Amino acid sequence: MSLHGRDVVSIRDLTRAEIEEILAASRRMIPYAEGTKVAHPLANKVVAMAFFEPSTRTRLSFEAAVHRLGGDCLTIADAGATSMRKGESLYDTIRMLSSYADAIVIRHPHEGAARLAARASERPVLNAGDGAGQHPTQTLLDLATMHEAFGTLSGLRVVLLGDLKFGRTVHSLAFALAEFGSEIVLSSPPSLRLPDEHRDDLRRLGAQVTEEPDLDRAIRDADVLYVTRIQKERFGDDDAEYRRVAGTYRIDNRVLAEAKPRLIVLHPLPRAGEVAPEVDHTPHAAYFRQAFLAVPVRMALLEAILGPKPRRR
Fold it and tell me: How far apart are CA 265 and CA 285, in angstroms?
């Protein structure tokens, strides 16, 4: 794979062929992620986890991936406990971290922070979410979950539901789905529609994109329902606007009654009431499998970036 030593800040940093290679490698990584096989291609490698925003699944799955590959982690889990509280810039913090580690995984509340980190770092940088920007490794595990369920990524009808304005997961995922020729259906409150620049990008790619605000109609012929949380933290001090859109949709067994039997429900998690617990016990629920696949997918990506350099043919 040609990713050795590279940054992954946006899903657009990867070609379709490279995404397919990562997904194939992640399938081979599953027994290693489960602990039934052991390999240590990252022995003596250190990965810095620079998390300046709360995280459960992303940080822990990255850490699990590093440990499963035989590497070690340095972790910042609280920006308030770093010298940034004393006024140190993000640039200087990342430049310093790159002298301690072989790669840096960064999550930050400000869009563009991961690209700044990549400029500052002398080591590869992986974007684990930057504000309302991008979340490329989440997209990889989303695609892995879809591929596992359907055996393909082409020709799927995928509904993106919820916060499409601030939702960095859907910003990355929509681009990848367009690359694979999936049909994209957008369903959101009017104030949380997908930003125009993302729509323009999808149109330039020749993507088939439709809008369907009616939830029942949106999912009737869907293969994948990708649910996102209304993110209160993205509204700043505008509590009134958040209250207007919070709770505008809820996926439960009634909503899914007319769905295709093979429909899968995905969610990047955490959920905050938009997917009812009763859905957990249906064949549609794929979000916990999705969360597990974060480990083999990130293992595959880390090995490609930090493992032994591939020989030239």
Answer: 5
The residues of the chain that CATH labels 3.40.50.1370 are 11-134+294-306, 136-291
Catalytic residues: 57-58, 86, 107, 135
Phi, psi angle pair for 292, to nearest 5°: -65, -40
Level-2 CATH architecture, domain 136-291? 3-Layer(aba) Sandwich (3.40)
Q: Which CATH superfamily is domain 11-134+294-306 in?
A: Aspartate/ornithine carbamoyltransferase (3.40.50.1370)
**Contact of 22 with 294, CB cutoff 8 Å:** no
Note the pLDDT tens digit of each residue in 56-78. 999 999 999 999 999 999 999 88
Distances (CA, A) of 309 to 1, 81, 120, 243: 9, 36, 23, 51
Tokens of 96: 């310093």
pLDDT reading at 234 higher than 80: no
Phi, psi at residue 44, to the nearest 5°? 70, 10
CA–CA dist 38, 51 (Å, integer): 28
Pairwise CA distance, residues 147 & 154, whole Å: 9
Residues in a beta bridge with 107: 51
CA 226 → CA 24, 164, 184, 278, distances in Å? Answer: 22, 11, 11, 17
Q: Is the pTM of this model over 0.90?
A: yes
The tens digit of pLDDT for each residue in 161-174 reads 988 988 889 999 99
